[in-house]
Design goal:
The protein is of the alpha+beta class and 188 residues long. The protein has helices at 3-29, 68-79, 102-113, 132-140, 175-186, and strands at residues 35-37, 43-45, 53-59, 84-90, 153-156, 162-166. The protein folds into 2 domains: 1-27; 31-186, Glutaredoxin, CATH 3.40.30. Mean pLDDT is 89; it is low at 9-28.
Length: 188
């Protein structure tokens, strides 16, 4: 083997390694990675939502924004057949506004708001003990940083990357927000 062939082979191996590392980084940067426990106790691999448009929301039952459950359900009903899924993650970091057990939260959501979109077990969304999902969300969304309050929304595109971040005051029926959801759904 000549030195030129050996050098070419070495360069090819290096490039292939770089590509693999970049692909691995891209996959690990997606919030749709790892398992989470649904509110009924079943484990779900978040990767099963890839290819869909996913709206991730930290929710609470005793918050001034709790009425957004109705809007989130309406959004889900309107767009689920086009590929939208809303994922609710109860959290108690903000004013202790989600003190209930998973069973209490599930009953509240279904009886008061008719929630049928997937709800997950209560998690930590802020601080040093936050769930890996929220660590990825808050580090990859713009603007970066901690969740500010209940009902903050992260829109994930079909490619598994964060397409938008929306503060609590942005209602699910907000025209600009709905337009962003529709734009994400239009991308194949």
């Amino acid at each position: 083997m000549t030195i030129a062939k050996l050098f070419s082979l070495l360069v090819l191996c290096f490039v292939a390694g770089v590509v693999r590392v970049q692909v691995a980084r891209a996959e690990s940067a997606s919030p749709l990675a790892g398992e989470m426990k649904k509110i009924d106790g079943a484990q779900v691999d978040l990767a099963s939502y890839r290819g869909k448009v996913v709206l991730i929301v930290n929710v609470a039952s005793r918050c001034g924004y709790t009425g957004q459950y109705a809007g989130l359900q309406k959004l889900y009903d309107t767009y689920k057949d086009r590929g939208l899924v809303v994922l609710g993650f109860p959290a108690n970091e903000f004013g202790g506004q989600e003190p209930g057990t998973d069973a209490e939260i599930a009953t509240f959501c279904s009886s008061k708001y008719g929630v049928t979109f997937p709800m997950f077990s209560k998690i930590v969304v802020k601080g040093p003990n936050k769930a890996p999902l929220y660590k990825t969300l808050t580090e990859s969304a713009e603007p970066k940083g901690e969740v500010g309050w209940n009902f903050e929304k992260f829109l994930i595109g079909r490619d598994g990357t964060v397409a938008g971040r929306y503060k609590s005051g942005v209602a699910p029926d907000d025209a600009a927000f709905t337009k962003a959801v529709e734009a994400a759904l239009a991308k194949q």
